[in-house]
Structures are given as structure tokens and as C-alpha cells.
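Worked example 3 (structure in, sequence out).
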């Protein structure tokens, strides 16, 4: 095939692979995320970011895996921007009617039906980096655990639980909100999970949010068992060679390639299952892509499974710099 014809074919295939469709609804940002004019090229004129807690009008959704939303951001020269769907909550997202007929499996009903997960994501927070930098310009001072860390009342030097998220490939990151049932955790469970989800020291708002948005979409566990399993999985990572290395370097910079080498020694498929998320070069989260039948503890092998579970592209917000700072708790 002539080179120019081949390039044209590749261009057309790229357009098809990344097609979008009209959509409507409201997106509520849960964190500060890059708002791209083109998420393929990662272009962001004006360095625009979402504001946590702010509502935005949804205009489009990408058709490849429903992981990107195009929202309207008034006040910018280019107000239509692409943001990752897991940056916040899209609620009952409504694709255009013609798209629903073509893709009935994408309907809100399927994406809010419990027990259909085909994988999980374990979101693990490095709390000092999260409080100090990830939400520093928004709502972090309103989170009681962050205020307690800033005052010195609370010192956190271990990884903590953000959430355990059942996923369904056909729904992208919009699989969630399968029930409105509130958590009713036993005192024994609360005692077990508080050091690993410190918001529970002060309230249950964040845990309740995680349960209703994510936990209710699996049917294997009640709320007690779900949070215990999630925390035990966090402890598995925290106590692994990777977790020990990071905790031994609090207040210092670590090399990204060193983290990958440690994971590779632990399990050959581990680097493909782990994503390190940063604000600038400061670690605030690790996301572990899990098989649907993952096993927590005593080693990372049970979390990773026989084959890499992370078969998609880069996770939004992944650390891009070679040196990563491990922030220290408190001022």
C-alpha cells in the first residue's frame, strides 16, 4: 500500500476508534482534574482544571470505553473540555437516543445493576500528599482528617483506603450507584478500618459515599465484609516490599523506575496492574487494577492474578516525572 494511503487509513481508523456521541446530564467534579481540549493529545490551553464540588453540564461522551466526558466550562476561551469520567460523578448519564438504540448495553439500568462487575480497582491514598496538594486549593480543609493532620492531632504514615470499585467494561467508569442503602457498620468493623480510612475517626460521610456509589454494585459482601476486604487489600500493599520502600522514604524523593523494579520483582505482571497518581511530582494515590476474583493478603500475587488486569491506556493523573516526592504528614 502506498505510504500516503496508509497514513490516510490510519487517520480514519483513529477517528473511528475515538468517536464521540452527544450526551446530557450533570457532572459533579470530585477532584481537581486537567480539562483537555483534546484528551488524545493532552492539550489544555490555559491549564484549565475542574473545581471539586462544582457542577458542569455534559455535552458528549467518548464511544470507545465511556471513560471521557466533554463538559461545558463557562469562562474559558475554549469552554468545551474533556475530563476523565472518574474525576467525579456523572449520575444517570444519558447518551443521545440514537446511540442508546445502537448500544443498549450502555443504558443507565445496566450500568446501575449490581453483581455484573468484571474487575475491580483498589484506590489507595497517600494521605499526606492528598491533603496537602491534591485538594489543597479546594475542599481539603473541610475534611476533618486533613485538618487533624495539619494541626498535628493525627499523624498518618501508612497508606489508606480511598475505595474498592467494582467495574464493568461496557460501562467504563460509570458503573455505580446501584443502591441508595446507607452503611450500617458494626463497632468491630469500625475499629478495624479507622486507622486505614481515617475519615471514620470523625464521621461516616465519605465511607457512606463510597459504599453507595461503588460498594452496592457488588453482591458478594455486605457493608462490613466489603470494607474489611478493602482494608485488608490496602494492608497487603502497605506491608509489601513496595509499601515498605515508600514508607521508608517519607519526606524524600523516590525514582519512578525503582518503584517499577520493585513491582517487577514481586510479580512479573505487577507493573501493568499498578498506577501511581501525582499532583505535580507528589504522590497522592495508587490505583491497583484487580481481577474480579482477587484475593487480599498475604502477598501482592493474589491482588494481581495470573494475567495483567490493566489492559487499558494510562490512568488519568499518573505521575509523569521521574522523581516522586513522598509527602510527610502534618505541616
Amino acid at each position: 500500500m502506498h505510504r500516503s494511503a496508509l497514513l490516510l487509513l490510519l487517520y480514519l481508523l483513529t477517528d473511528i476508534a475515538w468517536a464521540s456521541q452527544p450526551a446530557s446530564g450533570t457532572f459533579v467534579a470530585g477532584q481537581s482534574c486537567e480539562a483537555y481540549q483534546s484528551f488524545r493529545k493532552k492539550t489544555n490551553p490555559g491549564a484549565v482544571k475542574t473545581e471539586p464540588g462544582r457542577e458542569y453540564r455534559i455535552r458528549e461522551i467518548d464511544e470507545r470505553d465511556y471513560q471521557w466526558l466533554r463538559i461545558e466550562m463557562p469562562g474559558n476561551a475554549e469552554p468545551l473540555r474533556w475530563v476523565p469520567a472518574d474525576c467525579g460523578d456523572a449520575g444517570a448519564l444519558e447518551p443521545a437516543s440514537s446511540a442508546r438504540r445502537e448500544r443498549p448495553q450502555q443504558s443507565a439500568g445496566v450500568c446501575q445493576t449490581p453483581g455484573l462487575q468484571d474487575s475491580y480497582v483498589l484506590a489507595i491514598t497517600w494521605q499526606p500528599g492528598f491533603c496537602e496538594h491534591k485538594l489543597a486549593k479546594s475542599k481539603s480543609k473541610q475534611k476533618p482528617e486533613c485538618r487533624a493532620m495539619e494541626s498535628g492531632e493525627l499523624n498518618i504514615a501508612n497508606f489508606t483506603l480511598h475505595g474498592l470499585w467494582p467495574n464493568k467494561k461496557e460501562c467504563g467508569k460509570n458503573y455505580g450507584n446501584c443502591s441508595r442503602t446507607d452503611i450500617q457498620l458494626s463497632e468491630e468493623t469500625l475499629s478495624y478500618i479507622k486507622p486505614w480510612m481515617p475519615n471514620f475517626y470523625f464521621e461516616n460521610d465519605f465511607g457512606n459515599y463510597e459504599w453507595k456509589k461503588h460498594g452496592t454494585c457488588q453482591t458478594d459482601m455486605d457493608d462490613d465484609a466489603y470494607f474489611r476486604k478493602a482494608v485488608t487489600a490496602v494492608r497487603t500493599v502497605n506491608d509489601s516490599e513496595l509499601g515498605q520502600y515508600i514508607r521508608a522514604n517519607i519526606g524524600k524523593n523516590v525514582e519512578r523506575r525503582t518503584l517499577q523494579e520493585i513491582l517487577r520483582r514481586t510479580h512479573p505482571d505487577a507493573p501493568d496492574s499498578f498506577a501511581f497518581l501525582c499532583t505535580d511530582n507528589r504522590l497522592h494515590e495508587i490505583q491497583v487494577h484487580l481481577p474480579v476474583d482477587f484475593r487480599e493478603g498475604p502477598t501482592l500475587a493474589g491482588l494481581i492474578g495470573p494475567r495483567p488486569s490493566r489492559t487499558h491506556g494510562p490512568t488519568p493523573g499518573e505521575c509523569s516525572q521521574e522523581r516522586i516526592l513522598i509527602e510527610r504528614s502534618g505541616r
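Notes: The longest strand covers residues 282-291. Confidence is low (pLDDT under 50) at residues 3-17, 97-107.
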